[in-house]
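Entry for the shared binder. Reason: the reviewer on the internal report wants the predicted structure included alongside the sequence.
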Amino acid sequence: MNENKMLEYIPGTMMPREKMGDATGLEFLQKIFFISDGIKLSQVREVTGVDGTTLQNWVKRGWLLNPVNKSYGIDQLARILIINMMRDTVQLSRISFLLKYINGSVESREDDIIQESVLYDYICKVLEIWCGYGAETDLRTTINDVTADYVERFSGARRRLERALEIIVRSYQATLIKRYTDSLIDEISD
């Protein structure tokens, strides 16, 4: 499989990387939020392809904070992107568990080990390195290198972060492989 093709889109979005000047991670999020502190539901749908009903369901289930003044902030969008990256290959209840494992309750920032926007940035950086080299590079080594600047808020937080990153990256890799496989089947069925 062509690894360059694997990262054609910004992870968790429907947006070609090329359209955003090859930006990904925090750089991409900062471009989205350059003019304002929030984006509307229609903009979230445009970026992610996730319909409004699904997003409202995620809010009801406590997986996502309610929008403030009908606007989603940078960390909310990052969380949506992370969920969206995994939802083709991991059950939503397990994604919810993983996000709580990382950052506890969605309503409280006190139990967070990392901001969702920074987590998303780490995910994108790991994908960039790891998908570029595949099996030649050890995923755990890549995660360790990418998170070298991470400062634990409490003992054990780094280990939790590294374990969660491995799960998210492997899940997204499975999603990309599934999409690629589907496209191959589509090619021969035409």
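Summary line for the report: The two ends are 21 Å apart (CA to CA).
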